[in-house]
Amino acid sequence: MTIATDQNRALIEAGTDAVPLDPAELRKARSAQIERIGRWVLPVVILVLSVILWDRICVWNEIPHYIVPRPGLVLDALIQDWPILSQALLNTLRITFGALMIATFGGLALAILFTQSKWIEISFFPFAVILQVTPIVAIAPLIFIYVDSVEAGLLICAWIVAFFPVLSNTTLGLNSADHNLRNLFQMYGATRWQTLRYLRLPAAMPYFLGGLRIAGGLSLIGAIVAEFVAGSAGSGSGLANQILEAGYRLNIPRMFAALILISVTGILIFLTMNLVSHLLLRKWHESALKQES
Amino acid sequence: MTVTAFETGPGASASGPAIVSLNRISKTFSNGTVALKEMSLDIREGEFLTLLGPSGCGKSTVLRIITSLTGPTTGRIDWPLESASQEEHELSFVFQEPTLMPWATVFGNVWLPLRLKGISKKAAHDRVMEALEMVGLEAFSDSYPRELSGGMKMRVSIARALVTKPKVLLMDEPFAALDEITRFKLNNDLLQLWETFGWTVVFVTHSVFESVYLSNRIVVMAARPGRVVNDMPVDAPYPRGEEFRTSGVYADYCRTVSQALHAAMDANDHL
Ligand SMILES: Nc1ncnc2c1ncn2[C@@H]1O[C@H](COP(=O)(O)OP(=O)(O)O)[C@@H](O)[C@H]1O
Ligand SMILES: [Mg+2]
């Protein structure tokens, strides 16, 4: 078999000796290549164009910089205020990843607990739903009354927003293990722990990672929203606070700079989650396999 | 019809004593479906028994009751050759689908039954490879199921069933989803293994041809309620090969079994 594939490769490399591809296949190969490049180039081009357009609109309409700053000004703010902004960014990141951690492990643990007993699930799932459907801005003020530490309050808020997708996805995944495989485990006398470890957890992995991908973005949103509500100042303050403070001072470029940092953070979290998901699933799961037809 | 119901022919009795004994087994599901009614069957040691019958006649239910995945509503199962203290019966099950874990390699899948008994990867290695050699897949131990063809997946599934060295092998329409050429190949390989190792095989199929080719005893079942309507030996010598598949004896058996199957299905038209 290896010989056969080596031959194929040799034929392809030799080029002229190989059987030429028919026009339809050639077109397919070319369009696949174009798509590969376009996937990266197009978003960048659109982004650059929109920044230029933003700049032009400011100039053409003579919009004052304290209403909409030109991109150059925002960049200046980003560089000059970097000591302040980077500190705020670190604070926001700390809350975001703290909440994401608790949401991940808490969601996973709760999901496992739920699938161990139908009665536990029936009893407690409604609470999870209530927490999920109540807007966090409505709960946050209460939390900051009851919890003394601002940081703990922020963590709780971000966690409430982020844990539900992990919980519900993982619960679904744990219950989606193949019926025949479950019978097989039962037939071989597998313990509850073995069934969880070797069957249900691996089967739940794609679902769990899907939940994690959503939770990553949500924990950032949770952290930012909670900080707006808390309105905390001082050394522990994050990017949301920078936006509020800059707003009071009409320092619009810094508002934009903080906003950009938040967006970039969100994008990076999303890309990281995608990468983790791909690495863990590429060996076996459909979602991570290259399309071959 | 030449074969009367419940007849026990000489070919069938050539096998050993009963290894599994079903005594007037009935199964009624909670929704009221009577899947089996008063079914009695002695499965003898070393025989290749085929359960043949229309869809829904309770073939899978019989196998699930033998494996204790579900209990009978009334009736008893005995394992006459085993001591009462023996908790686990030495049996394995092969499903219609390969039922492999997609996240595990071929090795990991075959290792599973041993792993569940607490046998480490290292300790299980030789036995897993031995089982893979039996089905001709030793070169694919590191592949993932998605990289294999349907027939190869089925072979992995069989290797997983064989790795525990079972005495009884239960197979529920294992080759039904495969193309005919692959099915013939797997039929031959299964027969060869059976002749070498002498397990007791209970094989479920709804193919008359497959049942005659493989087994030395065919039990025909009818539906609503599920029951045994015919029990006939196939007295052709093993090893069986292409010459058997094209012989007049084979054709005669196919005709007889086919008639018995149709009689079983006609029985329901009066209900
Ligand atoms: N879990 C179940 N609950 C209710 N009815 C069932 C269940 N399993 C099987 N049945 C019914 O029992 C009958 C026999 O099923 P089965 O043993 O799967 O038949 P076969 O394998 O011969 O096709 C069918 O009518 C089927 O619908
Ligand atoms: Mg069936």
Describe the structure in your own words.
- The complex is a heterodimer of chains A (293) and B (271).
- With 293 residues, chain A is mostly helical.
- Chain A has two domains: 2-60, no CATH class; 71-292, MetI-like fold.
- Helices cover 81% and strands 0% of the residues of chain A.
- Chain A contains eleven helices and no strands.
- The longest helix of chain A is centred in the C-terminal third of the chain and has 39 residues, at 192-230.
- The model of chain A is unreliable at 1-15 (pLDDT under 50).
- Chain B has 271 residues and is of the alpha/beta class.
- Chain B has a domain at 18-90 and 166-269: 3-Layer(aba) Sandwich (Rossmann fold), CATH 3.40.50.300.
- Helix content of chain B is 37%, strand content 22%.
- A six-stranded mixed β-sheet of chain B has the order 5-6-7-3-8-9, sandwiched between helices.
- In chain B, α3 packs parallel to α5 (150-162) and α7 (208-214) packs across α9 (248-269).
- The relative contact order of chain B is 0.20.
- Classes of the chains: A mainly alpha (293), B alpha/beta (271).
- The structure holds adenosine-5'-diphosphate and magnesium ion.
- Adenosine-5'-diphosphate (ADP) binds at residues 29, 31, 33, 35, 53, 55-61, 226 of chain B.
SS summary, helix count of chain B: 9
Low-confidence stretches of chain B: 1-13
Briefly note the structural class of the backbone of chain A.
mainly alpha
Strand order of the largest sheet of chain B: 5-6-7-3-8-9
Share of residues in strands of chain B: 15-25%
Name the chain pair whose interface involves the most residues.
A-B, 21 and 21 residues
Taking Cα atoms only, what radius of gyration of chain B do you get, to the nearest Å?
Answer: 19 Å
Which class of the largest domain in chain A in CATH terms?
Mainly Alpha
Bound molecules: adenosine-5'-diphosphate, magnesium ion
Mean pLDDT of chain A: 87
**Count of DSSP H/I helices of chain A:** 11
